[in-house]
Design a protein that fits this description.
This protein is of the alpha/beta class and about 325 residues long. Helix content is about 30%, strand content about 25%. The strands form 4 sheets. The chain has a 5-stranded mixed sheet, with helices on both faces. It has a 4-stranded mixed sheet with strand order 8-13-12-11, sandwiched between helices. A hairpin with a 3-residue loop joins β12 and β13. α7 runs parallel beside α8. The protein is globular, with a radius of gyration of 18 Å. The protein binds acetyl coenzyme *A. Acetyl coenzyme *A binds next to α2, α6, α7 and β12.
Length: about 325
């Protein structure tokens, strides 16, 4: 049986994490929580928090540079930049244009995608479409967040869950005459949204409503329930689209919201936990940055190799959710 025609190919990846690490014990000095509670409920042990002078754009640029180095390319090779973020430096212009300027790329399109924790999946699908149809030849797709700046640090039910960081990939259009020809590339992507679930996970501010940035609000237990069901559903759809079975997946690279969601989703699909890339213990939930951060870590430590079949998946505010099957 012939599978789907591979789309955009992965040429490189990179990461950026602020040097400042905040442990659960440090949080417990300021709010009524404990390392035991946080680890038992979420698997999180620490998070990186942006310091003075560090912003979503600076982290995104750092991750993008690392991805370009990894791909052995220069900014001049890039003609599309997409930044997935819910915490842009400014209401406008797009953070992607700041990254473009900082890198010194040419005048190709640069824009942001706002789908919160699913943002990287949405950005990947958008880049894949443009690369498949001749809209660009090489793209930087970046997930970058500074969620520490929209947290209510007095709300223990949310502030312990999130961290800052950025991850980036370089993608190339299929059909380009390079050494990476063959079966590699994006095989199938599915995206979803359900705006009716707004009140379960949102930020209570914004330019057009309150003229403030606002703070993250979440009904964690209900989000958890939806996450497991939605993710299992979209993973099944992507497998069916690509005509592959769950056993053929070499690595699941999930959004890192909560170790229990990762376990429950893998179990539902019958995927052994050893095949799931986990960074939530050290990064916490970095929203749109979490999938590319996990992907980059596992590529750099040698777990993910060229030719491996990867399942990327995420769910976030909106709700939005999605999955992408990719041959590395
Ligand atoms: N420390 C200590 N106790 C706490 C804390 C804390 N940080 N936070 C809440 N509690 C208490 C609550 O007050 C409650 O106490 P009570 O029983 O006396 O009322 C108790 O712990 C249990 O609270 P629950 O909210 O029911 O705890 P739950 O087991 O559901 O765990 C959690 C909460 C970790 C947020 C979980 O629901 C979860 O992970 N949900 C998914 C959230 C998520 O993944 N969001 C992101 C997905 S989308 C995105 O990434 C944007």
């Amino acid at each position: 049986m012939t599978g789907p025609t591979p789309g955009a190919r992965l040429l490189g990846s990179g990461s950026a994490l602020p040097p400042r690490v905040v442990t659960n014990a440090e949080l417990a000095e300021k709010i009524d929580t404990s390392d035991e509670w946080i680890v038992a409920r979420t698997g999180i042990r620490q998070r990186h928090i942006a310091g003075d002078g560090e912003t979503t754009a600076t982290l995104a640029t750092q991750a993008a540079r690392a991805a370009l180095d990894d791909a052995d390319l220069t900014p001049a090779d890039i003609d599309l930049i997409i930044v997935a973020t819910a915490t842009p430096d400014n209401t406008f212009p797009a953070t992607a244009t700041k990254v473009q300027h900082a890198l010194g790329c040419n005048g190709g399109p640069a824009f942001d995608v706002a789908a919160v924790c699913s943002g990287f999946l949405y950005a990947l699908a958008t880049a894949d479409s443009l690369l498949r149809t001749g809209g660009a030849t090489r793209a930087l797709v970046i997930g970058a967040e500074t969620f520490s700046r929209i947290l209510d640090w007095e709300d223990r039910t949310t502030c312990v869950l999130f961290g800052d960081g950025a991850g980036a990939v370089v993608l190339e259009a299929p059909g380009l005459d390079t050494a990476r020809k063959g079966e590699a590339g994006i095989l199938a992507t599915r995206l979803h949204a359900d705006g009716a679930q707004h009140d379960l996970l949102y930020v209570d501010g914004g330019p057009s409503s309150t003229q403030t940035v606002g703070h993250l609000r979440m009904k964690g237990r209900e989000v958890f329930r939806h996450a497991v069901v939605n993710l299992a559903g979209v993973l099944g759809e992507v497998l069916e689209d690509a005509g592959v079975s769950a056993e053929e997946i070499d690595w699941v690279v999930p959004h890192q919201a909560n170790a229990r969601i990762l376990d429950a989703t893998a179990k539902k699909l019958g995927i052994p936990p050893e095949k799931v890339i986990v960074t939530v213990d050290r990064h916490a939930n970095t929203s749109a940055a979490s999938v590319p951060l996990a992907l980059d870590e596992a590529r750099r430590d040698g777990r993910i190799k060229a030719g491996d079949l990867l399942m990327l998946e995420a769910m976030g505010g909106g709700f939005t959710w999605g999955a992408c099957l990719l041959r590395a």
